Amino acid sequence: MDHCCREIRGEFTGASSPSTSSPGVASTAIPQPMEGLRDPVPPPFLSKTYDLIEDASTNHIVSWSRGNNSFIVWDPQAFSSSLLP
Predict the structure, then answer these.
(1) pTM for the complete prediction?
(2) Both 56 and 25 in a single domain?
(3) I want to staple 37 with a disulfide (CB 3.0 to 4.6 A). Which of 24, 33, 59, 62 is the partner?
(4) What percent of the chain stands above pLDDT 90?
C-alpha cells in the first residue's frame, strides 16, 4: 500500500479499532469532548496565552486583531524566544 493512502483511525474517543473496521468504511462512532473541557476554569495554557496577548507591553510582538476575536504574532522569532519560555 502506498504511504499516502493509509487511513488514520482512533483519533477521538469512541473511534473504532483497526481490527473491527473494514478498510474504506467510515466509522459510525460519535466523537466525544475531551476530558476537562467542561471544567469551570480554563486550562493553564489558555490563561497564560490570554495574559501574554492582553499585556500591552508585548503589543509589538503579539496583540489582538482589530476585531478582538483573534490574535496576531507580529514577531514570531521574539514570540518563540522571549515570550513562550
Answers:
(1) 0.52
(2) no
(3) 33
(4) 42
